[in-house]
Amino acid sequence: MRLRVEFTTEPFDLEQAPPHAVVAREVVQGAGLDSVDVGPFGNTAEGGADAVLAAVGELLRRSLGAGATRVSLQVNVVGEAGA
Predict the structure, then answer these.
(1) What confidence tens digit (pLDDT) does each residue in 25-63 have?
(2) In this structure, which of 21, 31, 60, 66 has its CB flanked by the most CB atoms within 10 Å?
């Protein structure tokens, strides 16, 4: 199964990316996922279910540890593995 995760971390800072946002992006960029799109107000990543779910767990632990007060995420099934 393939999954897509969309996420944001808060609080927002329009001047520069806060530490919790940087950490969350580092997690998904280093997770070996098939695609990662990082934006100023939202991020998406896609890959196999095991990799995405592991990245989500790490993203939550590390971004909350870095000061996030809210993490909003959505996970969607987008296909079968290898598709």
Answers:
(1) 999 999 999 999 988 778 999 999 999 999 999 999 999
(2) 21
